[in-house]
Specification:
Layout (H helix, E strand, L loop, with lengths): L5 H8 L5 H14 L8 H15 L9
């Protein structure tokens, strides 16, 4: 289902991302995205924007 690639996320982040955290989130998006109605591009865009904001572009996987 992947509607976005890791390379696109790296460009959007504009900084270095934690690859393990990013891949974990992309895997969850691929596995659960359809059930969570994240198959439409505008919904994925909102989800990833929020996720990148809260994780510092995937640098953190826990609340600081």
């Amino acid at each position: 289902m992947s509607v976005i690639t890791a390379a696109e996320i790296r460009v959007a982040a504009k900084s270095r991302v934690n690859e393990a955290n990013m891949n974990s989130d992309l895997g969850a998006l691929d596995q659960f995205g359809l059930r969570l109605v994240l198959s439409r591009p505008h919904r994925v865009a909102h989800y990833l924007a929020q996720l990148m904001q809260e994780t510092g572009a995937f640098r953190f996987d826990q609340e600081v």
